[in-house]
Amino acid sequence: MGHPWPTPKPRSEKRGFRYATQTAVPFALARPWAKPSLRSHPPKPSPTTHVPPYAGPPAARPGDVAGVLRLLAYLILATALMVLDYRSGWLRAARTQAEVAVQPLWWLAGLPSKVGTGLREEAVTRSQLARDNERLRNALLIQAARNARLRTAAAENERLRGLLGSAERGRLDVQLASVLDIDLDPTRQRLLLDSGRNAGVQVGQAVIDAGGLMGQVIATTPSTASVLLLTDPDHAVPVAVARSGIRLVVYGSGRSDALHLADVPLSADVRPGDELLTSGLGGRFPPGFAVGTVGTLRPDDSRAFLEADVTPAAQLDRGRDVLLLRGYKPVPAVDPAALPPAPVPAPGAPAAVQAVSAATNPPASPSATATTRSEPGR
Length: 378
Known about the structure:
Number of strands: 12
Strand content: 15-25%
Helix content: 25-40%
Distance between the termini: 162 Å
């Protein structure tokens, strides 16, 4: 039995697969006498088909042989190029240009690693900077506290130099004492010092600082001493105007920044800005120590005298140390009531006897020997 005639392919299959698939069925239906060819539909091998053991290896396909030959040719060419480059170096320039051309690729390949390293270093640097900032801030605070203490010590040293300088300039025998307490009540102006009778402090000693007179010692204990300041309302000190020599009396006003100058005659040569010094009258304070500066003069309530405020020369409301004058014995205060009265001359006595009696009992003067006073209602 011979093979059936092959089915002729329609002309439409030569124009493409899509057109063939669209026209194959209609063409086949149009030729029902054509028998299907066995070559067009080969039987599919069964999954259970076994290759006999005596069958040899499959024959090599022509495409595999060509691939092996190309690989061998490439290997031979690469080997030859490496040998030539090693011996003559003729590919060095080409390799350099290739490296330059591939450099952007290397940069792109290493970019993720660089970004990660940069982020990690930035995080570490930020935390390190935060720790360093906190450490430096603490060190700055400590240094500021030390500087404040040094400034305080420098100011204290300068003030002590001023005290000692004033004592050396006047060739005074002084004793240094520290202030324990200060009372600046309007009715009571006191200082408490850390030196008492055991240190040789005596009642009546004058107390000064680098600016001038501060007051006098009024009470002592074995370890402390109380000082009555010039600004106490019950204190008065005889003074003299340094420019003209006019003798006056300065009283305490109850304020630490002002004294009161009263009973200034209208014709007295006193001007604003005049410096007042201790006059030495009464024997309580040595002469020549600065007391204050005269302010604006104004009439008092009686319009018969002038009065003025005086700015103290000493720093009464500040400072931690004072100087106590030694070697000067103040005259003890005498109560005028304890003095025996002078004999009164008879009415018919001569005028010379009456003049002697008047000279023996002079009227009380505020600028004579009074250093303390007590005025009711003041």
